[in-house]
Amino acid sequence: MGLRDPLPRAVIISLFTWGRARPADDLPGTERCGWWGDSFASVPGDRIGSRLWLLARAKITQQTVTQAREYAEEALAWLVADGVASQVIVEAERAGVSQISLRCQIVRPDAANLDIRFNDAWSFLNV
Questions:
Q1: For the chain: N or C, fewer Cβ within 10 A?
Q2: DSSP labels for 99-114?
Q3: Could you tell me if residue 2 is inside a domain?
Q4: Do the beta carbons of residue 111 and residue 51 sit within 8 Å?
Q5: From residue 119, how far is each of 9, 64, 69, 92, 102 by CA, in Å?
Q6: What is the model's pLDDT at position 126?
Q7: What is the CA radius of gyration of the chain?
Q8: DSSP secondary-structure letter at 84?
């Protein structure tokens, strides 16, 4: 994987751009957030970002860790749908008292796989 490989940047944008909250989501505030450009998506319903931001004020419990993994999987699902990857594997775990770490493995059909880790993904949410 060279410096010109856009996949790591795409993964970071997908995970840490605030995706629009769904109507049933519990909000940490009053805003549903989300990227304004989603209103003009060329593919109806196509969204950028993740709902990881919804966990910003949550206590780190096993349920929070599970939800973080699910939100990350959801945010990266487009990689498989668009044929960039044949599989996306996300692992989340509590790291100490105040951290959640994420590991994202992107299996690509025609290029080297990407294994990207965020040892303190929680810090990206609580800025």
A1: C
A2: -EEEEEEEE-SSS--E
A3: no
A4: no
A5: 17, 16, 14, 10, 6
A6: 60
A7: 15
A8: S
Q: Quickly tell me which residue has 């970071």 as its tokens.
A: 12
The residues, any chain, with a CB within 8 Å of residue 23's CB and separated by 6 or more, are none
Q: Indicate the burial class of 37 (C-beta count within 10 angstroms; 0-12, 13-18, 19 or more).
A: exposed
Contact residues for 66 (Cβ-Cβ < 8 A; gap 6+) = 92
Divide the 127 residues of the chain into consecutive groups of 10 and give the mean pLDDT of each group. Answer: 79 93 88 82 84 90 96 96 96 89 94 91 64
- Domain presence at residue 52: yes
The range of the structural domain enclosing residue 25 comes to 7-125
